[in-house]
Amino acid sequence: MNVLNERGGSGVNEMAERNGELPIVVGVDDSDAAHRALAWAIEEATIRHCSVHAVTVWSVGPVADFAWAPDNDIKLIAEKKLSSTVRDAIAGRTNVPPIVESVIEGTPAKALVAAAHDASMLVVATHSGEKLRKALLGSVSSECVRHSSVPVVVIRPETGSTHHARS
């Protein structure tokens, strides 16, 4: 877990206690919509004076993005992608809230809902994905909305966008 903090605070719990505001949890993957969700969460956290908990969920299975790689390699790849995405999201910003990066193994919706259990809200993206993945797993954003104990903000992809994932 990495903590980025441009202002010198020491993390999620201290920030929440100081400001009376719980962190915002945001699910991050390679999609453009997820990058927009992270940007939205950072903006909202800046307004609320709270931290952002950026979460990437990975798993090994027939519909996983990382097929046939050792678990540790998958986790390292996910950590690097998340860190790169966070760096891109904060580039050029003058006011950046503390950002905690977490890479969790599990089912995306369940892991995100669990990560947001003590948060002020959960931010997720919705985007078109592979038909097989949707048929087997369902929509992550829909599952989060149905099962989360905190408010869920769903960020949609830009209208007219034909590119759904970053390389």
From TrEMBL:
Gene3D superfamilies: HUPs (3.40.50.620). InterPro entries: Rossmann-like_a/b/a_fold, Universal_stress_UspA, UspA. Residues 24-156 form the UspA domain. It comes from the Bacteria. Belongs to the universal stress protein A family. This is Universal stress protein. It comes from Kibdelosporangium lantanae. The lineage of its organism: Bacteria, Bacillati, Actinomycetota, Actinomycetes, Pseudonocardiales.
